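Deviations from the work plan: none for this task. Representative record:
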Amino acid sequence: MSRRLRPTSRGSRETGFVQPPFAAVKNPMAPLEPISSDQVEVIHHASLNILRDVGIKVDSKIARKLLHEAGADIDDDTARVRFDPGMVEDMLIGIPSEFTIHARNPDKTLTVGKNAMIFATVCGPSFVSDIDQGRRQGTREDMRNFVKLAGMLNIFHHEGGSGCEPMDLPPETRHLDMMLAQTTLTDKGWQPCWLNSAERARDCIEMAKIALQTDDEGLRNKPGIIGGINTNSPLLLDDSQAEGLIEFARAGQPIHVTPFTLAGAMSPVTIGGSLVQQNAEALAGIVLGQAAAIGAPVFYGHFTSNVDMRTGSPAFGTPEYAKSVLVSAQMARRYGLPIRSSNTTASAVVDAQATYESDMSINACINGHVNVMMHAGGWLEGGLTCSFEKLILDAELLQMQAAFLEPLDLSENTLGLDAIAEVGPAGHFFGTSHTLERYEDAFYRPILSDWRNFESWHEDGEKTATQRANAIWKQLLRDYEKPPIDPAIEDELEAYVAKRKTEIPC
Amino acid sequence: MSRRLRPTSRGSRETGFVQPPFAAVKNPMAPLEPISSDQVEVIHHASLNILRDVGIKVDSKIARKLLHEAGADIDDDTARVRFDPGMVEDMLIGIPSEFTIHARNPDKTLTVGKNAMIFATVCGPSFVSDIDQGRRQGTREDMRNFVKLAGMLNIFHHEGGSGCEPMDLPPETRHLDMMLAQTTLTDKGWQPCWLNSAERARDCIEMAKIALQTDDEGLRNKPGIIGGINTNSPLLLDDSQAEGLIEFARAGQPIHVTPFTLAGAMSPVTIGGSLVQQNAEALAGIVLGQAAAIGAPVFYGHFTSNVDMRTGSPAFGTPEYAKSVLVSAQMARRYGLPIRSSNTTASAVVDAQATYESDMSINACINGHVNVMMHAGGWLEGGLTCSFEKLILDAELLQMQAAFLEPLDLSENTLGLDAIAEVGPAGHFFGTSHTLERYEDAFYRPILSDWRNFESWHEDGEKTATQRANAIWKQLLRDYEKPPIDPAIEDELEAYVAKRKTEIPC
């Protein structure tokens, strides 16, 4: 309980912003499981049948060669790879069920897997939004501001991909600027945005080595970054994704394989069918990771949602999404693998819809023991937009979950039986010593919620939670202090970026 | 799955409003349990010790006499009642663990208990609000409009207490107008607002008899209303609540006993201590119900939350609230009793905060197998305000939960393995027969969410979910059709109300 209300040095008088310190989150309760273990086997065997009979198209020749050596059946003319079920089962043995990600600040090093989970901020959006300027293309400044905020908000364990794409920078070298921001503006663990080539994966690894002052062997023993690839559903693994995966697996950096299965479009119109296809594609990628480096920490990725069959738009944070999170987590447990999922919404604005879709996603992740929650802060509009107010809202949603997961204290002193006897019928507890000893740290302290009475809220301008979030992130940016970094490390990171910018043709 | 998207006759072209039909909701998954069975016993025994050593003040002489006859220790001078633990344990045996509530429309009769849950709209607020007129005192017209909407929204199983108090009607007879609205404007099961005297409880029972065309014996065999009382925490049961409880227990109508335990004010500043006190007060009321009528369907009420120790305001929908819901549900299961809790928020406005606090409450209720969710639709501002937009938002939140609880179909045809083989790598599923056969009913259809792309949303005026909710409830009211009622029954209800208005001094 003591972690609750202790104000951090980031407390601000203007916004009343206080937050619990950085801490690991574990779910001590049993996971929610919507399907039986027999049904888990139904999905498993159906996906093995797909891998055997239909197979996966693997564009990368390097990847096909590795899979061939591992025992898969290869047709180089069609790039089709088919997998014997026994070979898949064998390759699933011995993959780590948890891993530790080492941060530049050792206090922010965390173990992930089993019932331990981490929350990482959004990656990927081209747009950025706030209620002052609305939705617009992301810039280097937006990207850097987002990274600063992701670092300041203790509930986010990882900077998940630098928020928005800096669209004012050249696409060929943008990833270097994003990683420079991640490695210098925060001291947390970080996740590069999507690995879309072996070369970019290598840049991530080189910068992690500099940031953590280690070499290839040291980074393999003490991983510093979590990567991820998507399959191009249905049943396609393209060059860039396959080779990024191989690079990460060989470097011993944890990486998830996440099929892009939007039911009705890239996978069957049923959640059951989409989960079978997701499972087949995820297993194919995991097998490739093992073919590249036996025992590499390759893990299970979930993204299955559906398209709205009326508009063709993707839907997120729906009942189907929640079920698919929980069932995917059952599949990952079946394989003894960590799982990643996401905090998602299709809403274009930080309103009730954004909140309930995110809440549906987050609850499924928490109740399913999802180990890596990507896009946990700032995702809006199906991932097209990174929102500063949404980042603050998500911090509140996740802080509430973390407090909810803290075990209830039922020790004798805590129960206050003497206080109940002392107060007796029709009294109140404000003045009891039991209350006075505990009131400061007794309850969750929100960053965003306004619990004052109507009159106080009215006199203060009738602000919505979204308007309050706007004031909070702006104040946080004013309060930002760069975490300490050895100037030699920063110079080395900058030199790496400068050198690579001369090497990469724009 | 077939219940999903079938449009009801209430479909409206102007708002696109469709909803699944009225249906029971059951949670097929195991409940979430934050504490161990040993810890359940800690709370149980601590509360028995309070009942034995401190006791409860019971103002009603009638109630004290019943408790004395049941074996409790009575001090008439102080109105203090102390309970022997063995006597409490004995009285807990044989109380029904489920009950059926018979509605005027037999299709809306539902069994409640175990993993079956019902959602009932808000009761109690003096204020009403919508985004057109803001917050104001409730009127007869607001009350009747709210009852109509509660009846039209299929996800609400019960009209829970007519929304707002009609403050323009005399307080002495207002309950009659509220019950007249409940019994004539909807055909669902209904819950009278709080029972604050034996006489009002009797009015409820008499009007239920008329509405259901039955007599005392018939109503006892086929209950028609769910009642509830609060204890005046700490440790006080006042005249009106005790005697309302006795009246309902004797009439065989299900009634919950809900302690008003706001941690830090009316109960200890710890959730553990507040749950012990809640349990003691609930057991005292349940024992009184049994003393009045052995085997009466008296059940467990949860309301424990906390006050914000900085402002003194009650906080709702917090991490502590969610934990207290789940633990209370564990206590109720320990006693084999149904449990009621609520969908709560302290927000003054239908914004992100209202949504995440309601979501936290709802998720705890769903995951705890709470059987009666009171205030499930329309509650705002700690229960002081009934909001029309919140009612629509809550309908969406609950519909999503109901869809989430529907078992995942993993039958062979559903999985679409042939479609996966047919589409193959890099194709799409839009045109497959598997998709065409299923797309209309494939996925949850929201009433409020906007999933269109940014441009469409922008061109349509950038409406928030709350603004869309406003359009929906107004359109619903325009579409309202009174459910069929035998004119003779309606005449009889009106005559009862008229007669009672001449009898009750205003």
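Confidence is low (pLDDT under 50) at residues 1-11 of chain B.
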